[in-house]
Amino acid sequence: MNEEIIKLYLEDNLSILYIANKFNLGYKKVRNFLLKNNVKLRKKNTIGLHNHNEETKNKMRVSKIGYKNPMFGKCSEATKNNLKKCKDKTWNDPIKKAEIYKKASQTRIKNGLSKGDKNPMANDETVKKWAASNYNKLKPNKQELKLFQLIQRISNNFRLNTLGETIIEGKIPDIIDTKNKKVIELYGDYWHRNDTIEDELKRENLFKKNYYSCLIIWERELKNELKLLEKLSNFIKTQQN
């Protein structure tokens, strides 16, 4: 029996508790026996304790997934409120929000889910659904409104596209003139701080491929209105059909 205990533990990879029950022995007795025989103990092992068939295992696995879990959505009001506070605190913090998006983006890239057709945000229909689901949250910021007001001094053909009325290859242009095929993008100094000239050219070429001229304005340019008005005027008038 002694040799069999060691064999069951080392070769069959069974747990001490299972072996103890099999031979009607105490848990400590089996454990001490193994230690006295210089057997290196494993971490907690439950192999042999739960002899469920595959159907039962599958039911147990499914029961823990999302809405199929009987406890899904049944947390207390206090827990819901705490979760909401935590969520609001995170999403209202631009730095934390940026970190979450960055990690999600890195994971997608690592798994090859951000290339071509595999990137859901490259699909216009997906972007439309996303914009519709965030309808009450999407609104122009102060910088976009300021830029739009400057543009209106030159032309009334442009409109804010914050709600995603026009989507071009999964991209939502900030300000657009669909009649004369022109797009004006506002790059925030913080959010686009890592963008290179190549990134800007890539953005411009995407719109150019769809017959739109594109002008990128950086947030810092809003500080000099006269110079910016001249830049906007040159783009709008020289490109206008």
What does this structure look like?
With 241 residues, the chain is an alpha+beta fold. The chain folds into three domains: 2-63, no CATH class; 85-133, no CATH class; 142-239, VSR Endonuclease (Endonuclease, Chain A, 3-Layer(aba) Sandwich), CATH 3.40.960. 49% of the residues lie in helices and 7% in strands. It has ten helices and four strands. It has helices at residues 2-10, 16-22, 27-36, 54-63, 77-91, 94-110, 124-133, 142-152, 197-209, 225-239; strands at residues 159-160, 175-177, 182-187, 213-218. The chain has a four-stranded mixed β-sheet with strand order 1-2-3-4, sandwiched between helices. Helix 2 packs across helix 3. The protein is elongated, with a radius of gyration of 31 Å. The model has no long low-confidence stretch (mean pLDDT 82).
Short recap of the structure:
This protein has 241 residues and is α+β, with helices and mostly antiparallel strands.
List the defining traits of the structure above.
241 residues, 7% strand, alpha+beta, elongated, Endonuclease, Chain A, 3 domains, four-stranded mixed sheet
